[in-house]
From TrEMBL:
It comes from Kineosporia mesophila. Residues 22-105, 159-242 form the Carboxymuconolactone decarboxylase-like domain. InterPro entries: 4CMD/NDH-1_regulator (IPR052512), AhpD-like (IPR029032), CMD-like (IPR003779). It comes from the Bacteria. This is Carboxymuconolactone decarboxylase family protein. Transmembrane segments: none annotated.
Length: 250
């Protein structure tokens, strides 16, 4: 991506800073929109989806709004953006996610997009637990899920049930994003959130379970680096290396 392309995709990505902080704008722009983009192969659509997800995780509302405008311009659909935000609720909580819901609504309203968007739910209150457990086992692995239930103390069983019905039943069963993309969204949110290394590792496994490979996950982590920083990136790399070590002979 050339500097001109960057300006078209992200008009004023660091508004005002080009005057007050020209050196920062210069070297960050080269790093994020040139150097990092040359590492691995990730289509722009997926790159923008995972970067938006990581910005929600890190609570970076202002940069999220800027990137959201570029994402919509480049072909990420309003439904896909809403699904990214909705899915983040299960991982960052509504306390953090609510600001991103409102920011997304503001950007969509500014573009003349009528809200609410078409519903994407495929479950009912009666089916969400069963369907959630099924997709949880598909993603996490049946043996792993059964072990989570078996190992949870009696007074914590309700948390496992809520995880199946809410996190998976209310979110992963929705249309708008396919299952493979949802797992990338979750991984990116967790990396951006920080402080949840076991969950990052678990969702590296889950991404492998839904068909992604080490090369793709390494590229995703690399594309998040400019927005989440080195510590969270290095922690994500440790999780990736633990689960899917590099073939050092290649």
């Amino acid at each position: 991506m050339t500097p001109g392309d960057t300006d078209a995709l992200f008009p004023g990505p660091m508004s005002g800073l080009s005057t007050t902080d020209p050196e920062l704008v210069d070297y960050f722009g080269h790093f994020a929109f040139d150097e990092v983009l040359r590492s691995g192969e990730l289509d722009p659509h997926t790159r923008l989806i995972v970067q938006l997800s990581a910005l929600i995780g890190s609570g970076s509302l202002r940069e999220f709004r800027v990137l959201l405008g570029g994402a919509l311009t480049s072909g990420v659909t309003p439904v896909q953006v809403k699904e990214i935000v909705y899915q983040s609720v299960a991982y960052v909580g509504m306390g953090r996610a609510i600001d991103f819901v409102h920011a997304t609504n503001d950007v969509l309203n500014d573009r003349g997009i009528d809200l609410p968007l078409p519903g994407q739910s495929t479950t009912t209150p009666q089916t969400r637990a069963e369907k959630g457990l099924a997709v949880q086992k598909q993603i996490v692995g049946a043996d792993a899920v059964d072990a989570m239930y078996a190992n949870a103390p009696a007074d914590e069983q309700h948390i496992q049930e809520l995880l199946s019905a809410n996190c998976f039943g209310d979110h992963y069963t929705r249309t708008g994003l396919d299952l493979q993309t949802r797992e990338l969204v979750t991984l990116a949110v967790l990396i951006g959130l920080g402080g949840c290394d076991p969950q990052v590792k678990g969702h590296v496994v889950a991404n492998l379970n839904v068909g992604h490979d080490r090369a793709l996950l390494l590229t995703v982590i690399t594309q998040l680096l400019p927005f989440v920083g080195y510590p969270r990136t290095l922690n994500a790399l440790r999780a990736l290396d633990d689960v899917a070590p590099s073939d050092r002979t290649s």
